[in-house]
Amino acid sequence: MADSKAEIVIVGAGIIGLSIAYQLARRGAGRIMILEKAAAVAEGSTGASSAVLRQRYSNPEMIRLARDGLRAYSNWSEFTGLSEPRAVYQRTGMIWMVGDTPEAAAAHAELMRNEGIDAEVLDAAELQRRFPALAACSSALDLSGATEHECADGGPFLFERDAGYTDPVGAAQDLLEAALREGVELRLRQRVTSIRRSGGRITGVDLAGGCSIDSPLVINAAGPWCNQLNSMAGIKVPWTLSPMRVQVLHRDRPTEIDGPLPVVADTTGGIYLRPEGRGQQILIGAIEEEHEVIADPDDFQRGVDPEYRETKILGLHHRLPALPHRGRVTGLAGLYTVNEEDVHPILGPTELDGFLVANGFSGHGFKLAPMIGSQIAQSLTGKRASFDTDVPIDYLRVDREPITVQSKTAVA
Ligand SMILES: Cc1cc2nc3c(=O)[nH]c(=O)nc-3n(C[C@H](O)[C@H](O)[C@H](O)COP(=O)(O)OP(=O)(O)OC[C@H]3O[C@@H](n4cnc5c(N)ncnc54)[C@H](O)[C@@H]3O)c2cc1C
C-alpha cells in the first residue's frame, strides 16, 4: 500500500535534481516530488563544488550547453523568478594556461566564437597588462621540489571573458525556492531504499522509514550514489561511473594580490584557482583527475591530505609570485562521479520504462545543471520555456557511443 503518489519522483536534492524539478514544474508537468536522504539540499557534490562556469570544451555541443548554463546563472534573478536570489554570478573571466600551441589556442577561440562566446588569445605581455598578479610562465614545475625552477614567459593563453563562478549552495537554495513556488514537494531525510517495478516498468519507490511512494516515473539524480539507485532499479548502464574524492583549498587573499583575479586553469602547477566569495579568499583545486575512487560515498575522508596541500600551494605561489607565505589555508574534500569512459554525463531514459538517469557529471555538473533540467523537461513535456537549450538530450543519451575528448580530465 503506497503512502503517497507523485507523477514524477526525483531522487536527490543536489543542483541536478533541483534543476530538473524546477524546469519540469515551470512547464506544468504535474505533481513532482523530490526525495532527499540528507537534512538539507546541496549536501552531496553540490555543496563542495567550486561552481566555476566556463565554456571551453572539446565539442560544440558541450560548449553550447555550458554557454546556455552560464546564461542562466548570469541572469539568475530572471531565470529563477526570484527578486533577490542568494547566488550572485561573479564574472571574472578565465585564463587557460594549459600549454596550447598558437594553432590550438586560435582553433579553440574560433570554435567558441562560432558559438557566440567572447574568446580571444592573449600573449604574455597582454596577460600581465590585464592581470598583473599572474606570472606568465609556461614552464612546468617539478612539484617534488627536487629541481630548481626557472620561470619562462610563455603563451599563448586562451581567455574567456564571460567565465566566472557563483555560490553553489546559494544557487541550490534558490532553485529549491523557485521549485517550491511552482508546486514541487521536497521531502528531506527520506532515503530511497528500493525501487518498485512491475511488468517491466517503474511503479514507485520505498523509503527507509517504511513508507512508499507510487509513481510511474522516477529520475535518478543521486550524484555519487547513482550506482546504488541503478542497482535498486535492476538496471546496468554501459558506463563506469566512479565516485571520486576531490579536494579543494581556501586561502586568505592578502592585499598584495589586489588587482583583478580571473579563474585560472594552470597545468604547469597542476592547479586551477579562482577568487572565493566576493574575492576575499582564493580557492585552489586540481586541474587533472588525480582523485581517489571511493567505494562507499557515505564514508570518505573529508579533510585535505598534507601532500595535496603542499603541492597545490607550491603551484599557487608559482602563478602568483607576489603572494606572501603568511596566511591561513583551509580545505575540504567532496565527491563527484566520474564517467571513466568519456567524462561526460549520461542523461534520459534507460532500458527500464519510467526510469531516467542524470548521472556521471564528472567536474561539469554544476555549470550544466540548468540545461540538464531544460533537456529533461523538454523531452518529457514537449514544451519550451525561456533560457532553454537547443542541444538535444540524445547527445548525452545512455546508449550513445563515448564522446571523443581532447583530454579525459575535468577539462574535457
Ligand atoms: C570539489 C568539487 C569541485 C567541483 N567543481 C565544479 C566546477 O567548478 N564546475 C562544475 O560545473 N562542476 C563542478 N563540480 C561538479 C559538480 O559540483 C557536480 O557535478 C554536481 O554538483 C552534481 O550534482 P548532483 O545533483 O548530480 O549530485 P549531488 O549534489 O551529490 O546530489 C545528489 C543528492 O542525492 C541524494 N541521495 C543519494 N542517494 C539517495 C537516496 N537513496 N535517497 C535519497 N536521496 C539520495 C544525496 O544525499 C545528494 O544530496 C565539482 C564537484 C566537486 C566535489
SSE inventory with pairings:
Elements: E1 4-5, E2 8-11, H1 15-25, E3 32-35, H2 45-48, E4 52-53, H3 60-74, H4 76-80, E5 90-91, E6 94-97, H5 102-114, E7 119-122, H6 124-130, E8 157-160, E9 164-165, H7 168-181, E10 185-187, E11 192-198, E12 201-207, E13 212-214, E14 218-220, H8 226-233, E15 241-252, E16 263-266, E17 271-276, E18 281-286, E19 292-293, H9 306-319, E20 329-339, E21 346-349, E22 355-359, H10 365-381
Parallel strand pairs: 1-13, 2-3, 2-14, 3-10, 6-16, 14-22
Antiparallel strand pairs: 4-9, 5-9, 6-8, 7-8, 11-12, 12-13, 15-18, 15-19, 15-20, 16-17, 17-18, 21-22
Helix pairs in contact: 1-7, 1-10, 3-10
This protein binds flavin-adenine dinucleotide.
Flavin-adenine dinucleotide is lined by residues 11-17, 35-38, 43-46, 48-52, 191-192, 221-225, 246, 248, 334-336, 361, 363-367.
Give a short account of the largest sheet. Answer: 9 strands, mixed
Mean pLDDT, as a whole number? 95
CATH architecture of the largest domain: 3-Layer(bba) Sandwich
N-end to C-end Cα span: 47 Å
Instruction: List cofactors, ions and other ligands.
Output: flavin-adenine dinucleotide
Helicity level, as a percent range? 25-40%
Discrete helix count: 10
Q: Quick one: CATH superfamily of the largest domain?
A: FAD/NAD(P)-binding domain
CATH class of the largest domain: Alpha Beta
- The coarse overall form would be globular
